[in-house]
Amino acid sequence: MNKWKRNPRVFNGEYITVTRRDDGSLRPNFKPIKTGRGFDVVRYAMAVSNELLWALDGLVEESE
User: Fold this and answer.
1) β partners of residue 18
2) Which of 2, 13, 23, 19 shows the shortest CA–CA distance to 47?
3) Angle CA(60)–CA(32)–CA(1) in degrees, nearest 5?
């Protein structure tokens, strides 16, 4: 028996994953990146923010 319980992955993007904890909360996790020559910080930040929006749009219910 595996003594480590994994939180289910509910979104798997290129830059982030989102997992759901036992209490229902969501946890965004960054994937490793290489920041060598040619790395564009603004482009990376925009890509991450887009993925976060896509993930949360499908996972979070709007409160009225």
Assistant:
1) 11, 28
2) 13
3) 75
**Encoded tokens for 43:** 């482009």
Four-residue CA torsion sign, 15, 44, 61, 25: positive
- Residue 9: partners with Cβ closer than 8 Å, 6 or more residues away: 17, 18, 19
pTM tops 0.85, yes or no: no
CA 42 to chain centre: 18
Distance (Å, whole) CA 37 – CA 17: 25
If pLDDT is split at 50, 70 and 90, which confidence band does 2 have? low
Question: Do 18 and 27 form a contact (C-beta atoms < 8 A)?
Answer: yes
Q: Which amino acid is at 4?
A: W
